[in-house]
Please model this.
Amino acid sequence: MKSINKFKTIKDVSINLKLPQHVLRFWESKFKQLKPLKLSGNRRYYRDSDVELIIYIKSLLYDDCISIKGVQKIFKNQTINQILRSKDPILKKKNVLSENNNKSTQKDNSNKVNAEYKKILKEFVSDLKKIKNSF
Model:
């Protein structure tokens, strides 16, 4: 049998990752890939790969604001090893999408500003013409 010392209890994981134990148990019900070893008395023992997956899930949910359903779609039909191998490309893809989104938002904002300046300038020219014609 494997040494228990290689595994982490739910309490250890909870403290180290600053996540309540009930959240970890809830995530087990939502993500089929997260299956800690359960031994005597239904005690949970997390492998290193489980902890990596929890860190990844936490990042997607809390940092990237992806919903649980969204994360489930990302993980759909994948094993824990496939998810952990593919997590870097997914993060890179999200970063690229985020950068593109920021650029398009900046472009939209600059177009709005340009339109406002044009409107103000037209009104100014119109006022100048009125003043000129009044002389």
User: Anything to note?
Assistant: The chain has five helices and three strands.
